Amino acid sequence: MSTNIRIQRVCQYCGTTFTAKTTTTAYCSHKCNSRAYKEKVKEKKIEKSNKETLEVKVKPIEVLKAKEFLTVKEVASLLNCSVRSAYYYIETGKIKAVNLGQRVTRVRRVDIDKLFESTEAQPEEKKEQHFELSECYTISETLEKFSISEKALYEVIKRNKIPKIKQGKFSYIPKSIIESVLS
Ligand SMILES: [Zn+2]
Fold first, then answer.
1. Sign of the dihedral defined by the CA atoms of residues 143, 158, 172, 122, in that order
2. Average pLDDT of 45-49?
């Protein structure tokens, strides 16, 4: 059966609407196709370079990992947070520390490891939670309700490991969770 179906698609490179012959055509023209390809190659190169940079940066961390007792500054670099935050975690008891004297606070590295053992278990629990779509906001509803930018919202979702429920082309976020985080 040959039908002359004209499919309207949006070019993934330049964003213009074009008439496609198949439902999988991604680009409006050969030009956009090759430009997109070139960009992908470039991105891969950047990614590779970033990875190499990270490996160089990671080495001092390896040294810290070998230490049994850490200073607060070392804790901060190991956790990739500020020294101030590290002190805050210690003060609030999130990180166990011993105060040996003024400015001599030491943290056992194993206690830092334990910290992750307990947080690693968390996403598992969250996975088991089930949310009805009626208990959720869409992304745009959330943006409107809390008047934040999309970028900020995704940052919040990522940082708080908020579950996203994908349904068709929409993503849903549980109302109760986003409300407790953003209110
Ligand atoms: Zn195009």
1. negative
2. 93
